[in-house]
Design goal:
about 130 residues; 3-stranded antiparallel beta sheet; Jelly Rolls; 6-stranded antiparallel beta sheet; 11 strands; mainly beta; 1 helix
Length: about 130
C-alpha cells in the first residue's frame, strides 16, 4: 500500500510541475498550444496574446471564434482555414491570414506532418480567448 501511495504522490508532483511550466498548454486532440506572451495594449480594455500552435497530421480544431482579431503566420506545414461565409483558404509556411473579430472558423492540418503557426490575438481583456461555437 505504501508503494502505491508513493507512486500516486510522485505522479501528482510530476503533473503539477508540468502544469506550472511557463508557456506550456497541454495537448488536446492533436493540437498543442504554447503561450508565448500576453501584454496590455495602449488601447483601454485590449491585450495582445501570442501563442504557437502545433497540429498533428489530420488534427482539426473545434468550430470557434475569438473576442478580437487574430493574425496567423504559418511556420511549418499546410493548413486549411474555413472562415464562416468564405471559401476555404489553404496556407503553407510563410503565409499569413487575418481573421476579423468574432468570425467563426475551423482549422485543419491537411499536410502529412506536424503543422505549426504563430497566432497573434488582439482581444478584449478578461474574456476567454477561445469561444467554442459547436
Amino acid at each position: 500500500m505504501k508503494k502505491y501511495r508513493c507512486r500516486i504522490t510522485i505522479a501528482a508532483i510530476f503533473t503539477f510541475c508540468v502544469l506550472m511550466i511557463p508557456g506550456l498548454t497541454l495537448s488536446q486532440s492533436g493540437i498543442t498550444r504554447f503561450d508565448l506572451q500576453k501584454n496590455d495594449l495602449s488601447i483601454n480594455g485590449r491585450e495582445v496574446v501570442q501563442v504557437q500552435v502545433e497540429f498533428d497530421s489530420g488534427a482539426v480544431s473545434s468550430k470557434h471564434n475569438h473576442p478580437g482579431e487574430e493574425i496567423v503566420y504559418v511556420i511549418e506545414g499546410i493548413f486549411e482555414y474555413r472562415l464562416e461565409g468564405q471559401p476555404p483558404v489553404i496556407l503553407k509556411a510563410g503565409d499569413v491570414l487575418f481573421i476579423p473579430s468574432g468570425t467563426t472558423h475551423i482549422v485543419k492540418n491537411i499536410g502529412s506532418g506536424t503543422a505549426k503557426e504563430l497566432a497573434t490575438y488582439i482581444v478584449e481583456k478578461g474574456k476567454p480567448l477561445i469561444v467554442n461555437t459547436e
